[in-house]
Design a protein that fits this description.
61 residues, 4 helices, 87% helix
């Protein structure tokens, strides 16, 4: 979903949502690497939500 947001110009059009999605995904990967799967899933969900919100905003513009 982040790749789709990036392809839609999310970096420039909705920078807050784009950066949030990327940072949450990065945090999820770190939690996964530390075998904290429950936390990784929660943070990944927040990443997806930020990307989804960003895509929604891009489509409005």
């Amino acid at each position: 979903m982040i790749a789709e947001l990036k392809g839609a110009g999310g970096e420039k059009l909705v920078p807050y949502e784009y950066c949030s999605a990327e940072k949450f995904l990065e945090a999820a990967k770190l939690e996964f690497d530390h075998n904290d799967f429950k936390m990784a899933k929660g943070v990944a969900s927040r990443s997806k939500s930020a990307a989804k919100t960003g895509l929604s905003e891009v489509k409005k513009k």
